[in-house]
Write a structure and sequence with these properties.
The chain is of the alpha+beta class. Among the domains are: 144 residues, Immunoglobulin-like, CATH 2.60.40; 127 residues, Immunoglobulin-like; 116 residues, Immunoglobulin-like (Sandwich), CATH 2.60.40; 100 residues; 61 residues; 62 residues, SH3 type barrels (Roll). Helix content is 32%, strand content 28%. It contains 21 helices and 36 strands. It has a six-stranded mixed beta sheet, with no helix packed on it. Strands 1, 3, 4, 5 and 6 form a five-stranded antiparallel beta sheet that branches. Helix 6 packs antiparallel against helix 7. The chain is globular and about 100 Å long. It starts with 9 loop residues before the first helix and ends with a strand.
C-alpha cells in the first residue's frame, strides 16, 4: 500500500488548476471532467530509473548519469550519496538536482532528477546493481544498468588523452626513514592549445602516509616535441610511521580541456570537456630507526630547544615563570609533549599548559611552548635545569640530543609590610580606628566621587514580527479556487488528521525502525560484510535497533539492551542481546570480523518481531480532527497577538516563561530573526550570556543591517567572554566587514544571482542590436548594465568570502566549552580527544542518534561533540 501525503498532491493540484482555467475559458465542462479522471489515474504511477539505462562510457572520462524519479521524490535525509557502490565507477562530487512537472494529453508527469558526474576507472564492463531507494511514496526498486567502457578521445580530435595531457607523482628518492618528512610533487603537463582550467584539486589517498594539504598550483611553460605545454606543479609533504615496503596509490586531478568552439564572432566561446588525469603508482621503502638511546620519544626531524626563566632574583611568594619552547620541522602529529622537569620541593608548582602553534597550512613545522609557574616558599639559591631532548636526525641518520643550560635563581626573603599611619583628615573608610591627634577639629568628609554610568542592560523585546506572505497575482485564480474549495478543505483536513494520527501512533517509530533494519540487513548481505563499509552498517543497525526496542541511552551496554528488549518480548531478549554484543565487539574490538551466521540470525530475529499497524479509523477521533481547527485559528490570529504572551511574561519579569515561548517560535520558524533576538534577551536576563550571544549571532546573520541585531551582538560579545574573530570583526564593522554586513549571506547570494541575470539581459540586448532588431541605444545600455552587474557580483563575492563559514546553511556556534571526540561515544577512553572552546564556529554535517553532531572546521579537522552545546545559526 503506497503512502500518499498532502505534499505529494501539490503537483497534481497545480496541473489540475491550470486545466480547470483552460476548460472554464473554453466552456468545456466535459473536458474538465475527463482531465480530472485521466490525471487522477496517471498521476500516481511512480518509477525510479537510471538515464541513460545503458550504452558506452569513456575510460577516465566524466559523464552524467541521472537517477530519475517519476511522480515521486527521494527522501534525501535517508538517501546515501551515491546511492550504491559500483566497482570500476567513481562518482565525482555531489549530484546536481532538477525538478519539473509536465502535462501531455491529460497525463501529468512530475520528474525529479539527481545528476551524478561519474568516471569509469577500469576498462571492464560496468554494472550498477539493483537497489532500493526510499521516496515520499515509499520504498521503490531501481533496476540494474549496464555499460561498456571504451577508449575516450578528446572531443572530435581523434587524439587519445595521453597524447594531450599527463600527470606524474615525483619523490626525491625512494628510501626514507620511519617518521622522516619528505616532499611530494604532482606535475600536470597539458598541451597549451587544449588547456582551459583545472577542474579539481589533487585527489590523492596518501595512506599509509600522513600528508599535508597540497599547495596552490604554480604554472610554467615548456617545449616538448615541438608542442608548447603548460606544466602545473603542486607540492605537499608526508611521512610514514611504520617501516616496510609500500606502493603509493595514484593521484588524480581533473582538467578542463578545450575541444572546439561554439557560437560565432564576438559571441563565440570554447567548448570544454573534463578529463581525469591519473599518475602511476610509486614504490617506496621505509627503513626502521636504529636502536634508540634512553629518553627517545619517537621524534624525527630537525629541532631546537630554548629554556627561559623570569625573574632570576625573586622574593619568597613571588611567582617565577619557567618556559620551554621546542621548534623545528618533523613528525609533529606524533609529538605528545615536552620532557619532564625536576624542581625542588621548596616551590609550589602550577601545572603547565602546553601551547602548540603550527605554521600556516603546515602540518610538520611549528613550535610547542610550555610554561610552568613556580612560587618559592623559602629563600636561598636554586638551580633549574638542564633539560635534555633526544630526536632522530633523518639527514644525518643518527640520534641527537639537545641540552639547555641550567639557570640559577636567588630567592630572597619576603619584605616586611609597613604599618599604616594615622593621617588626620583621611577618608573614614581608609583611616585606622585610633584617636585623632586633635579632637577639637571637625573631621573632613570623604572626597566626592563622580557617579559611574550603569552597565549595558538588555532592551525591551520587539513585538512586531518581520515575516510576511506575498500574494500571487493570477487572473481568474479566485474563480477556479472557489469551485473545488470545499473538497480541498475536506481532503486537507482529513489528510492532516491522518498525518497527526500516524505521527502520534505510539508504534510509528518502532515500525519505521523495523523497516530500516530490514534495509540495513539487506545491504549487509549484498556487500558481504566488507571491512570498508562494515563499521557504518553496524552503527546504522544499532541505531535502528535502539529505536525498535525504545532504548533511550546514546551508547547502551549489554544489560540495558537485554532489559529494554525483555520489556517488550522476554523470549527475544537473548537473541538481540547476543547480536548487539557481537556488533560492539566488531566495532571496538581488535579484530573486525563478524560471525558468518550473524546476518541470518539478525534477519530471523527481525522477522519474529510483530508490531501492530496503523489504525486508519483513528484519524476520525476528536483529538486528531480538532487540532486542525485550533491550528487554523492560530494562523488567523495576527502574529503580534501571538507574540504578546511572551512579551507580557518578559515585562512582568517571568523570563523562563518568555524563554519557553520564544524558543518554541524559533523551533517552528528558524528564519524569524525577531524571535531569535527576543530569545537572546530572555536568556540574558537569566545571566546565560553565552547562550544568548549564540542566538544574537543567528539574528545578526539573518538581519545584519538592523540596529537591534548589531547592538545585541556587541553586548553579547562584551558580557559573555566569547570572542570569535569573525564575530568581533562584524560587530566592529571596520574595513571589508562594513560592506559585508550591509546584507545577510542569503541576500548576497540573491544579489549574485541577480547580477548574473543582469549580464544575461545585457548580452541579449547586444544580440538584438547585432541582428538589427533594436537601435543603437542598446550597446551603451548593455555595457552599463554589465559594469553594474560586475560591481554587484564583486561586492557579493567579496562579502560572502568575508562571512566565510558563517555563510554555510549548516553553520553552528559552540556556546559552551566541550570536548571534541574522534568517535561519537563517551564510553571508549582510548579514543583521541581535544578541548573545544566556547565561541568556535564550525559546520555540522552529520548527526548520530540525535545526541551527537559531527563538526567540520576550516582546516579540515572533524570531530564529534554533544548536540546540546551547539546552536544552529540558520536551522
Amino acid at each position: 500500500m503506497r503512502r500518499i501525503t498532502f505534499s505529494s498532491l501539490l503537483p497534481f493540484v497545480g496541473a489540475c488548476l491550470q486545466a480547470i482555467l483552460r476548460c472554464i475559458a473554453c466552456k468545456q465542462a466535459p473536458t474538465f471532467l475527463i482531465l480530472i479522471l485521466v490525471g487522477t489515474a496517471t498521476a500516481f504511477a511512480q518509477i525510479v530509473r537510471w538515464e541513460p539505462p545503458g550504452g558506452q562510457l569513456g575510460y577516465n572520462q566524466v559523464s552524467d548519469l541521472a537517477l530519475v524519479f517519476e511522480n515521486c521524490e527521494p527522501e534525501l535525509d535517508k538517501l546515501k550519496l551515491p546511492p550504491v557502490a559500483v566497482d570500476g565507477l567513481s562518482f565525482v562530487g555531489q549530484p546536481s538536482q532538477n525538478s519539473e512537472t509536465s502535462m501531455v494529453n491529460g497525463t501529468i508527469t512530475h520528474r525529479y532528477s539527481l545528476v551524478f558526474p561519474a568516471r569509469p576507472t577500469k576498462r571492464t564492463p560496468i554494472t550498477i546493481p539493483e537497489f532500493t531507494v526510499q521516496t515520499d511514496k515509499g520504498a521503490l526498486q531501481v533496476k540494474a544498468a549496464s555499460y561498456t567502457v571504451g577508449d575516450a578521445t578528446v572531443g572530435g580530435t581523434g587524439l587519445a588523452l595521453s597524447d594531450i595531457a599527463s600527470a606524474k607523482l615525483i619523490l626525491p628518492k625512494n628510501t626514507f626513514w620511519a617518521g622522516e618528512v619528505f616532499p611530494v610533487t604532482c606535475t600536470l603537463s597539458v598541451v597549451e592549445r587544449y588547456f582551459h582550467t583545472l577542474g579539481s584539486v589533487v585527489d590523492w589517498p596518501a595512506a599509509p602516509l600522513i600528508a599535508e594539504d597540497w599547495s596552490k598550483p604554480e604554472a610554467s611553460k615548456t617545449m616538448q616535441r615541438g608542442e608548447r605545454r603548460i606544466v602545473i606543479t603542486q607540492n605537499t609533504r608526508a611521512y610514514a610511521k611504520q617501516a616496510g615496503n609500500f606502493t603509493l596509490k595514484p593521484a588524480t586531478q581533473i582538467a578542463n580541456l578545450v575541444v572546439g568552439q561554439t557560437g560565432f564572432g564576438l559571441f563565440s566561446s570554447p567548448s570544454v570537456e573534463q578529463r581525469a588525469l591519473t599518475t602511476e603508482p610509486v614504490e617506496i621503502s621505509i627503513l626502521a630507526l636504529p636502536s634508540a638511546p634512553p629518553g627517545f620519544s619517537g621524534v624525527v626531524g630537525e629541532f631546537s630547544l630554548v629554556s627561559k626563566v623570569v625573574p632570576t632574583t625573586p622574593a619568597v611568594g613571588e611567582p617565577v615563570t619557567w618556559t620551554i619552547e621546542l621548534t623545528g620541522v618533523g613528525n609533529w602529529p606524533d609529538i605528545s609533549g615536552l620532557p619532564q622537569r625536576d624542581v625542588s620541593n621548596d616551590f609550589q608548582v602550577v601545572q603547565p599548559k602546553s601551547k602548540r602553534t603550527m605554521k600556516d597550512n603546515s602540518l610538520f613545522e611549528g613550535s610547542l611552548t610550555e610554561d610552568v609557574v613556580l612560587v618559592p616558599t623559602k629563600p636561598g639559591p636554586y638551580t633549574l635545569g638542564p633539560i635534555r631532548f633526544t630526536y632522530f636526525n633523518a639527514a644525518s641518520g643518527s640520534y641527537q640530543t639537545i641540552t639547555t643550560e641550567a639557570v640559577t635563581i636567588n630567592v630572597s626573603a619576603a619584605p616586611a609590610t609597613p604599618l599604616p599611619q594615622n593621617i588626620q583628615g583621611a577618608p573614614v573608610q581608609f583611616s585606622l580606628n585610633l584617636p585623632p591627634t586633635n579632637p577639637s577639629n571637625a573631621p573632613k568628609l570623604p572626597t566626592a566621587i563622580p557617579p559611574v554610568p550603569p552597565e549595558n542592560l538588555p532592551r525591551d523585546p520587539l513585538t512586531a514580527s518581520h515575516r510576511g506572505i506575498i500574494p500571487f497575482h493570477q487572473n481568474g485564480f479566485w474563480l477556479a479556487a472557489t469551485v473545488p474549495a470545499s473538497l480541498i478543505v475536506l481532503i486537507a483536513w482529513l489528510t492532516l488528521a491522518a498525518l497527526r494520527s500516524r505521527a502520534l501512533d505510539p508504534q510509528r517509530r518502532r515500525r519505521a525502525a523495523r523497516e530500516k533494519l530490514a534495509g540495513v540487513l539487506a545491504e549487509l548481505r549484498r556487500s558481504g560484510s566488507q571491512p570498508s563499509t562494515l563499521g557504518s552498517q553496524l552503527r546504522n543497525w544499532q541505531r535502528h535497533t535502539a529505536a525498535l526496542w525504545e532504548i533511550s541511552h546514546a551508547a547502551p551496554g549489554t544489560p540495558l539492551v537485554h532489559a529494554c528488549v525483555a520489556a517488550h518480548s522476554r523470549d527475544a531478549a537473548p537473541a538481540w542481546t547476543a547480536l548487539w554484543n557481537e556488533a560492539d565487539r566488531v566495532q571496538h574490538g581488535p579484530r573486525a570480523e563478524l560471525p558468518s551466521d550473524w546476518t541470518a540470525r539478525a534477519e530471523s530475529a527481525l522477522q519474529a518481531v510483530k508490531i501492530p499497524g496503523w489504525n486508519f479509523f483513528s484519524l476520525l477521533t476528536g483529538r486528531h480532527l480538532l487540532p486542525f481547527l485550533f491550528v487554523f485559528l492560530l494562523i488567523a490570529v495576527p502574529s503580534s497577538l501571538k507574540a504578546e504572551t511572551a512579551a507580557e511574561a518578559y515585562k512582568r519579569g517571568d523570563f523562563p516563561a518568555a524563554e519557553k515561548s520564544w524558543r518554541a517560535e524559533v523551533k517552528s520558524a528558524p528564519a524569524d530573526w525577531t524571535a531569535r533576538h527576543n530569545l537572546g534577551l530572555a536568556l540574558a536576563q537569566q545571566d546565560r550570556w553565552a547562550e544568548a550571544t549564540a542566538h544574537w549571532t543567528s539574528a545578526f546573520l539573518l538581519a545584519p543591517g538592523a540596529s537591534e541585531t548589531r547592538w545585541a551582538l556587541a553586548l553579547g560579545l562584551q558580557r559573555s567572554g566569547l570572542a570569535p574573530a569573525e564575530l568581533v570583526d562584524f560587530s566592529q564593522g571596520k574595513g571589508r566587514y562594513q560592506l559585508a554586513r550591509c546584507a545577510s549571506p542569503g541576500e548576497w547570494q540573491l544579489i549574485l544571482a541577480g547580477a548574473s541575470l543582469l549580464i544575461a539581459a545585457a548580452l541579449v540586448l547586444l544580440l538584438l542590436q547585432g541582428y538589427g532588431r533594436i537601435g543603437s541605444w542598446a550597446k551603451p545600455a548593455a555595457l552599463t548594465s554589465i559594469l553594474i552587474a560586475i560591481l554587484l557580483a564583486a561586492a557579493a563575492t567579496f562579502s560572502l568570502r568575508s562571512y566565510g563559514q558563517l555563510a554555510h546553511p549548516d553553520a553552528v556556534i559552540v556556546w559552551q566549552a566541550a570536548v571534541l571526540r574522534s568517535i561519537p561515544t563517551e564510553a571508549d577512553t582510548a579514543q583521541k580527544t581535544s578541548p573545544l572552546s566556547a565561541g568556535s564556529i564550525a559546520v555540522a554535517d552529520k548527526t548520530f542518534l540525535n545526541n551527537w553532531t559531527r563538526l567540520t572546521f576550516p582546516g579540515g579537522q572533524t570531530g564529534w561533540v554533544r548536540s546540546d552545546v551547539l546552536i544552529r545559526l540558520y536551522r
